[in-house]
Structure formats: C-alpha cells, structure tokens
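Run log // design_07
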C-alpha cells in the first residue's frame, strides 16, 4: 500500500496556471547548457564524494603512521592509551559537529544549503589538516585531529544527504554507493602514501616520513572547497526554503531539469511531476507547522526511521570494520608480522577493499538493500570466526598468512554491503521536514560508535589479544537478525514515498464511513494525518465504478453525498494520482479509492512562468526559442 499526501488545490496546478502572457505567446525557454542529465549527475556525485574521501583518508592515515618508527621516536613512543586518544579524538569532533553544527536551522540559524555546509566542512578540514601537518607535540596533534573531526562530522552527514537528493529513485543506490567507493579510495590512498613516504624518507630522524601524508590530504580539502562553487544545489533544499526566497522555485526547477537532462523543462511532464511532488510535500509540511515542531516531535513521529538509520550505522561500526581500519597494522603485528611489512599488507588489503565496493554500485538498485546487508553480515561473521580460530591456533608459519587472508575477506564483505548501504539508508529514509535531523543523529551515532571502537581496541588488544574479536562476531549475528526482522526494503522508492514502508505519514480513522447509493465503505484505513482538523473541503473520489462528490469534516471523516451522473472529470494536474488503500468496499470489487483532486487550503501549487524566468537572475542559463 502506497501512502501519499493529498494533492493541494488542483485549480492552481492545471494547465491554466502556467500559460504564458501574450508577450511570450508561441515562445518556449530552453536550458543553454549541454552538460546535463547523467553526465552532470555522475560528475557531481564524484566531485562531492571527495568529502567522503577525506573521511577515509583521515581514518587510514593513522593506521599506518602509528607504527612508523620516526613517528614513535618524535612523540616519545606513545602508550596504547595515548594512541587511543590520538586516533579516536577525531570521532569526538565529528560527534559534536554532527549534533550541533548540522542542526543550527532548528534553532533559527540557517548557514545555507547543502553546498554551503560542504564548503564549511572543507574549510575546517583545511585548517585542521594544516595543524596536523605542523604538529610540534602530542597536544597539537590531538587538537588538529579534533578539528578535522569537526569537518568530517559536517561532511559525512551533508554529502550523503546531498547525493540522495540529486539522485533519481532508480539510481540512488548507485550514487550513494559511489560516495563510499571514494571513502575507501581515500583510506587506501593514505596507506600507500605512508608506505611510499617511509620508503623515500628513510633516515631515523626524518619526520617527513609521517608529515608528508598529513600534508598530502590538504590537496583534497582544497579541491573540495573549490568544487562547492561549481556544483548544483539540492532541488529539495531549494524548495524547502522557497517560502523565504521565492526565486528558489525557479532555481529548483532549473536544477531538476539539469538532473533529468530536459532542456524544454516547462513542457516536460517528468520535470513538472517531480517539481510538483516535492513542492506538495513542502506545502503539506508547512500546513502541519513541521518547521516549528520541537525536536522530540520528530523522534516520536518517525521513531522507526530514527531507529533504522541509527542502528544501521552503529552496527556497521560494532561489526568491527575500524578494528581493522584503524589498527590493521597492530593486528598484523599480533599475527607475527613486523616493520613496514605490516603497512604493505594493509595497503594490499586496502586495494581489495576498494574493489569490493564496486559491485554494490550496480547491485543495490537491483537486489535491494536488505539482501546485501544479510549477505554481508554472514560473510563478516564467518571471517571473524576464522580469525579467532587461527590466532588461537598460533602457528608461526601459517597464522600470519591466514590472518591476512581472512582480514581481506572480512573487508570485502564489509565493502560489499555494510560500508555503503547504512549510509544510503540513513540519508534516503528521512522525510524532508527532518532529513537533516535524522541524518545528523545517525551520523552522530556512527561517530560515537566509531570513538568507542577506536578507543577500546588497542587497550583490549593489549589485554586479551584475539579473544577481543569475539565481540564483533557477536554483533555480526545481531546485525543479521535486526536486518531480517526489522528493516524495511526501500529499493525503488522516491524519497517522498518512504511512508509507504514505514507507515508514519497516515492515521487510521476508526469510525469513518463513505456512503453513496449501493456503495458503502465502512472503514477508510489510511487518511493522511495532515487532513486531521480541517474544515469541510470539496473533493472528488474516483473509482472504476464512477465518481462521487465528497466532503471532509473536521474529524477527518469523508462523506460521499451523490454520484456525478454522466460527468467525467479531466484533471490537468501534473502530479501522480494518490492511491489510498480501502479494505472493505461493499457491493463493489474496487480495492482502492483514488482521490483525483482535494483541497487542503488556499495555498496553490504553481510553476514559475516564462515571464518570471526571463526577468530573473537565471535568464543567463536559458535561451528563448519559438515553439515548433
């Protein structure tokens, strides 16, 4: 059953609403640019995914540097506790910025759109990266990691939201998975950069062996900062703030046209349909005063969405990826390897890790999110079981080799499933009214879990050795059960359609009735919550048996008064019809009732006219042509 919002005043959405004035009769406007459609979307996704590359690089760079002899010598051979602080303090910074900086709009502070937030994150990263590169002591190193954490918290949340909002429902899995590919490319790049720098700067006191990898990451931060002045803004963000800045409606329509690759966008049903759908949800959210609700309201209303988003990212961490991501070199040392060979093994592992992230780009939109997660949980759990048994065996000849093998297998299953899919879920299941809130909360849970894993790993590795790996094995089993019995499948759904699997956008009406001659509906099962409390509104209900005049009272009950004899309604509304399930229609085989038009308030859905575009600041992106 697909639960959608009711349409807003259809009289404003018919073709009469966007007829051009006589001055532009016979004219049409087209996009100037030829760089539109899939090439633009894929380029934008790749460019913005540099933000997740920074995250991966920042994680991986410490995994190899903490075993570098020059690093140990310069910082007086840090203890396991000091290494825990240096490595995991980044997660504290990311946790703080995820909760505070990403949610300033809920306290009335609007930094700007997704692009502006990504720009802010990249700027903070550049500052933190420079401090890390020039670190003179442990305190400066810890401070720099904290500042980088602030940047990562902003980037990891906003990049995933941004990509989910510019992708179509059929390619959202691909686009969302691409950003994780860049994450792991960043991780692999950091390890190989360290391996090469230690080969070049071999002197015992040559600190460039560990400073150069810190310097190299600044290149990516600067690249992302410059890129935010080039990429498009999220169309959903623009429409969400179009009340404050009406010209955002025009920009959002242009952006949607570019994303869909439609030059003649004012005459394209696909562009207008998506534009109307997003605007409709924004208007309904405004009618509900969602933007004025306290934060706890969203937690209560969208409880399952919060739980799915947060648990997915928490389990991804507790499954043990950063036991390997941060401390793979220490794990290989435990298995019997020494020196730069541990960095080499981590580098080889990272290459396989990158390759494992490519298949889900093409599978996640075909077989779905749940199947990938279930396969990943089984594979990771099996890998941890083998690692535990191998280290318990402790054979000097075979244990190091087999440990490397099953670490690579574990990383492959993680990259195949639990790497990309939790981030994709957290960004796509949230409604527009609190998308930033859900994404930032789930990101905060990710970083808190990340911190816990990063902090306890070297301490417990030192205390209980391989027995510590029983914990991630247990969480792999838990992950399988949670996904199988609690998570819904979201594959193929529009962002605005997620209520159809979470059932949190509608209220059941216990005693409403529809009556019309021989047709009677005893229980109307799914009336959208935004209709509660409205006064009587005229609307029309359409079934295969005929069309009926209806009214809606202030308790949410719908009453059908009489059929419209010998009259067929032609709706010019470009939005899709709304299907609401009805589970008991007497005297008819109809299984659904389709409200063709409904009036909520006097607010109107409208498309900007040619006049408005020609006289706007966006006219430079458009060209005026004769029709035909």
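design_07 sequence
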């Amino acid at each position: 059953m697909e639960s959608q919002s009711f349409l807003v005043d259809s009289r404003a959405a018919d073709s009469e609403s966007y007829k051009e004035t006589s001055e532009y009769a016979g004219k049409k406007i087209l996009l100037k640019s030829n760089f539109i459609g899939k090439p633009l979307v894929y380029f934008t996704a790749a460019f913005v995914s540099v933000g997740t590359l920074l995250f991966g690089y920042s994680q991986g760079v410490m995994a190899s540097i903490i075993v570098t002899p020059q690093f140990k010598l310069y910082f007086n051979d840090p203890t396991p506790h000091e290494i825990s602080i240096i490595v995991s303090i980044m997660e504290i910074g990311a946790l703080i910025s995820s909760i505070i900086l990403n949610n300033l709009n809920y306290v009335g502070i609007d930094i700007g759109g997704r692009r502006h937030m990504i720009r802010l994150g990249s700027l903070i990263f550049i500052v933190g990266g420079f401090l890390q590169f020039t670190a003179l002591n442990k305190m400066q190193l810890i401070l720099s990691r904290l500042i980088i954490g602030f940047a990562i918290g902003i980037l990891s949340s906003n990049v995933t939201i941004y990509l989910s909002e510019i992708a179509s429902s059929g390619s959202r899995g691909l686009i969302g998975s691409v950003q994780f590919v860049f994450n792991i490319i960043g991780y692999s790049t950091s390890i190989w950069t360290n391996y090469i720098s230690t080969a070049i700067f071999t002197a015992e006191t040559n600190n460039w062996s560990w400073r150069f990898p810190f310097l190299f990451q600044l290149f990516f931060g600067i690249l992302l900062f410059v890129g935010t002045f080039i990429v498009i803004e999220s169309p959903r963000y623009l429409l969400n703030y179009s009340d404050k800045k009406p010209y955002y409606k025009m920009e959002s329509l242009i952006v949607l046209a570019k994303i869909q690759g439609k030059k003649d966008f004012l005459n394209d049903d696909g562009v207008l349909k998506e534009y109307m759908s997003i605007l409709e949800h924004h208007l309904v959210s405004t009618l509900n005063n969602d933007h004025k609700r306290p934060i706890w309201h969203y937690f209560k209303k969208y409880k399952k969405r919060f739980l799915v988003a947060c648990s997915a990212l928490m389990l991804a961490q507790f499954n043990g990826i950063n036991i390997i991501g941060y401390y793979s070199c220490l794990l290989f040392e435990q298995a019997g390897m020494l020196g730069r060979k541990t960095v080499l093994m981590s580098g080889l592992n990272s290459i396989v890790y990158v390759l494992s992230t490519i298949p889900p780009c093409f599978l996640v939109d075909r077989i779905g999110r749940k199947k990938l997660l279930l396969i990943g949980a089984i594979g990771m759990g099996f890998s941890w079981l083998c690692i535990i048994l191998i280290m318990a065996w402790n054979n000097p000849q075979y244990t190091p080799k087999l440990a490397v093998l099953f670490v690579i297998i574990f990383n492959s299953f993680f990259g195949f499933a639990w790497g990309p899919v939790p981030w994709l879920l957290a960004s796509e299941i949230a409604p527009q009214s609190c998308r930033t809130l859900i994404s930032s909360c789930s990101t905060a849970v990710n970083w808190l879990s990340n911190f816990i894993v990063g902090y306890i790993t070297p301490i417990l590795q030192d205390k209980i050795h391989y027995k510590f790996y029983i914990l991630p094995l247990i969480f792999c089993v838990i992950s399988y059960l949670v996904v199988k019995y609690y998570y819904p499948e979201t594959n193929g759904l529009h962002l605005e359609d997620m209520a159809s699997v979470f059932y949190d956008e509608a209220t059941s009406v216990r005693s409403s009735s529809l009556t019309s001659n021989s047709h009677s509906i005893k229980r109307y099962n799914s009336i959208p919550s935004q209709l509660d409390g409205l006064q009587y509104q005229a609307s029309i209900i359409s079934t295969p048996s005929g069309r009926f005049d209806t009214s809606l009272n202030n308790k949410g009950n719908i009453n059908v008064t009489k059929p419209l004899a010998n009259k067929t309604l032609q709706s010019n509304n470009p939005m899709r019809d709304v299907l609401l399930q009805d589970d008991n229609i007497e005297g008819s085989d109809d299984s659904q009732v389709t409200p063709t038009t409904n009036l909520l308030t006097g607010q109107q859905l409208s498309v900007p006219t040619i006049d408005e575009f020609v006289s706007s600041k966006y006219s430079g992106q458009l060209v005026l042509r004769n029709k035909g």
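Confidence is low (pLDDT under 50) at residues 1-20, 506-603.
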